[in-house]
Fold this protein.
Amino acid sequence: MAEGTFNHTDPMQNFIERYPQRLDALFYPRTVAVIGAKDNLGSVGRTIMANLTDGSFPGKIFPINPKRSEVFGLKSYPNLASVEEKIDLAIIVTPAPTVPQIVRDCVEAGVKTAIIISAGFKELGESGHKLEEEIIACARKGQMPIIGPNCLGMMNPIYGLNATFAKGMALPGNLAFISQSGAMCTAVLDWSLQEKVGFSAFVSIGSMADINWGHLIDYLGNDPNTQSLLLYMETVGDARSFMTAAREVALEKPIIIIKAGRSQEAAKAAASHTGSLAGSDEVFDAALERIGVLRVNSIADLFSMASVLSKQPRPKGPNLTIVTNAGGPAVLATDAAILNGAKLTTLSPQIIKKLDEHLPEAWSHSNPVDILGDASAKRYSETIDVLVKDESSDGLLVILSPQDMTDATSTAESIVEVNKQTEKPILASWMGGETVQSGADILSHAQIPVFKYPDEAAKIFAKMWQYSQNLQTLYEMPDVNFFQTHERSHSRGSLEVKKIIQRILMEGRTLLSEFESKQVLSDYRIPVVETLVASTVDEAIDIANKLGFPIVLKLFSQKITHKTDVGGVKLNLETAADVLKAFNDIKKSVAEKVGIEHFEGVTVQRMIKHKGFELILGSSTDPQFGPVLLFGMGGQLVEVFKDSALAIPPLNSNLARQLMKKTKIYEALKGVRGFKSIDMEKLEEILINFSLMIVENPRIKECDINPLLASEEEIIALDARFVLHDPEIPDEDLPRLSIRPYPYNYVLSTDLNNGLPVVLRPIRPEDETLVIQFHRELSENTVRQRYFEFMSLDKRVAHERLVRICFNDYDRELAIVAEVKKEGGKQIAGIARLSKIPGTKVAQLKMTVIDAYQYLGLGKQLLDHLLPIALQEKIEVIDAYILKENTGMLKLCERHGFILIEEKDPFIVHMQWRA
């Protein structure tokens, strides 16, 4: 039996049309009601009416105002109930206190979506926040999505819809612009009209009481008219919604963000503006790296990057080659490239020799390649032809400074010809005014980005490389042994640590002692120095004798976090007399500084004397992104050197390695100046296990290991500190991970009809190798029944395709693989997948079983496992598209409660399951 469902473009489009997207009525309304419509000069209601009626909007417009019989020549209605047609979009332009009742009216009238232009909500404080909550609670009961409040509105220039109070309509184009600031929208709109930049959507999102970044990214990411998404952001809002949508879309379309709030002062201004917490800027950068999104620092860069990425391929490396006819501009470009993270290509002797064949003796013989002021179009062409073939180079910047003998037009034409023959990005800087404009126009027309200034072009190249790096994070396959390490730690650590945390909370504490902290680390396979508690000096001496000198004594207290601050750490104790003195000194110091009640004894541990590096490994809770990991240089001066980097959990081996590489200490860890390399694989494993500990224990609020001593002999935690969330916070209100971790609760061990053991589990990134082998085992008939046409093996196992299959965002897609043991390892025998439709409670089922395991009940086992998962994931409808000839799959679905849905297609059967 070959099991499969249809996943082609047309049936999928039919599927989406049958279950309209949540925001269709917002972007493509057929009927619009303006509540608060006016024709008074200077009023917001008038401007919105003018924009709706002045454009090419093809739908009907219904002004709602009980005080008027007519607005803009259209009949005015006293309320929504009096409108004879169903309203797709309601635009609310009335004072904030009136909005809750209007929203109730909208829900009762069956309005599909609404934009609340009005201000006066959570940005004003508690009273406004309560008003907003009342509005959203009512809207959600009626399943009516809302944009705003406190927003400019939105435009769909392609559809002719201008539902804003901005001056004018955006030009149609392929850029989607979403902004949290209405003022930024109007400024960008004005600029775009001057620069002839067009948009597929132009949205002011306001305070995001309902519709958020994730919803809009999802919708516009699936919009065929949108090629790039540009975001002006002040606050993130629902971090998981944003990250899950952005990661999915970033694989197909560039998402470029400019976010206010880099400085503390700007962050405070953003918070007061939107009524939300701004969060750490460094955490935000770490989150964007994780999901393949590019951040820029200016509006100009926002549009420059969108333009460049739509015209030129991304660089595969950081190396930029600069060709110029003037030295000064090239120096500026070099600085800009290096300062923004790119590198200059080092010219090999072979490349220099080839260039010597075409260039005058006085050329620079290095990069930047200065071909002198009298460079002709031919000289430019011959130079670039050599350099694009240089395997060390990842992109070219061609600079032209107008000299008396310069032919800007012919030079541009020669570059256009070279551009057709390379897959490397080529950028140009045609410096000057009218004398070079014709050449710049030729380049622009040929999709070669042209910049007035070379440093701007070099900076854009560096940003292109940064974007490539971010996307590479999505495409990398973790090491195969990652999951094995992860699984061992999971099974061993989780239960014991939960018991420790529960006991501490029952005692009314949120601070773990050093002894308890090390217990937790040890349970997650993080090496710790053996630490014992002594409540008396005699106990301390006895333990010291057993452990062996030298010894370290530290204050044991359930209330004091930083022991060094109260004189609570004594190092390198060589004798029992030293222990006696140290014990009494710690006790006296604590009594004098904070009170004797804080002295509960000491901990005793051996003194580690390895020469090594003091590291820090920690976690804290960001107000928007939840738990965040930190790694870097540790010790007492950790806050002085500030050599650290952040990452969003969970980590795998690749992500752990990338986190380490972002620090300066990383190079030293690999060996430097007499120090041998530490065990880097062991350090990776420690980072992964630490990440797992944070993921599995949401009660942990803060945690750090400082120092984590790393030497060639061992890597060991010498001290640790844990703080828990307040026990009064219920579990459901604890900070949520911004990336959903691996769902272990969906792992099931069972048997096939022939008694063969099989493990049904969610797919994981490192399954890529097994999935390749899985596709090699499929017969042509099974492939056809799965894809409704023959798809070549090369296409099915392309890495870029398998990334999407294996790297599941478990909030969006759940693929269950059937893993069986095979000689020499493991094999995937079948895959069943639920793909959720964003904004709905609908999913599509796809299933494939390799030929050797058909007729063994595997399809039944997969579906038996998948349907209860669908219920837990709050999926209410599952659709399956099946070839009529695939009788086995049809019968399987029928036995599991799927019903036949009438279809016009003569070859495809549509079956549906409902919760």
User: Anything to note?
Assistant: The chain has a mean pLDDT of 89. The CA atoms of residues 333 and 455 lie 4 Å apart. The chain is about 40% helix and 20% strand.
